[in-house]
């Protein structure tokens, strides 16, 4: 088992006691963290352009994920965060930006933006982040998992048009933060185009 894996297991055990978040905040408050960003992805343009507007709401996420830290699960009952690394923004904002840019880059919808700005939409995209984390496996390797639940609604009457769960995982052999972030990007490379195509079809 790697040093990082043992360290995460220890931190996960400590986190089972109250006050862990406060202790972690004190330990990391003055420590600079490497910052990582993720890229939008969309397929080549296909199909006609729709004169529709779509606004993407800020995704809902559990408190453990609604942060700029990269969530690690040393075991099913424990959580901690990847040492010395963070996302470029809080995760819900990162996911919202990825979806907006990926859908926009298809060139098939007249306007795609956030729900707190822009014109009155034809449709709104609601997002729930069920998983965006790394699990430590029994053999010492890691598994990156992303589960995003998407729902399209009519803005006028709030009627649900369609809903779908997009889920995918990828194994990572190294606990190096760059390798873990690259694995997240590899998963997104597969599911972002599928999510964009699905959203365009339902708008």
Describe the structure.
It is a single chain. With 203 residues, the chain is of the alpha/beta class. It contains four helices and eight strands; from the N terminus they run ααββββαββββα. It has helices at 3-14, 20-28, 91-104, 177-202, and strands at residues 34-36, 50-56, 69-75, 78-87, 109-114, 123-136, 142-154, 160-172. A hairpin with a 2-residue loop joins β3 (69-75) and β4 (78-87). Strands 1, 2, 3, 4, 5, 6, 7 and 8 form an eight-stranded mixed beta sheet that branches. It has one domain: Rossmann fold.
Summary tags:
alpha/beta, eight-stranded mixed sheet, 30% helix, 36% strand
The CATH homology group name: ABC-type transport auxiliary lipoprotein component
Rg over alpha carbons:
18 Å
Decide which structural class fits the backbone: alpha/beta
Low-pLDDT sequence parts? 5-28
- Which class in CATH terms? Alpha Beta
Main β-sheet, in a few words?
A: 8 strands, mixed
Question: How much helix is in the residues?
Answer: 25-40%
Short description:
This protein is an alpha/beta fold. The protein is 30% helix and 36% strand.
Itemize the secondary structure elements and their pairings.
Layout: H1 3-14, H2 20-28, E1 34-36, E2 50-56, E3 69-75, E4 78-87, H3 91-104, E5 109-114, E6 123-136, E7 142-154, E8 160-172, H4 177-202
Helix pairs in contact: 3-4
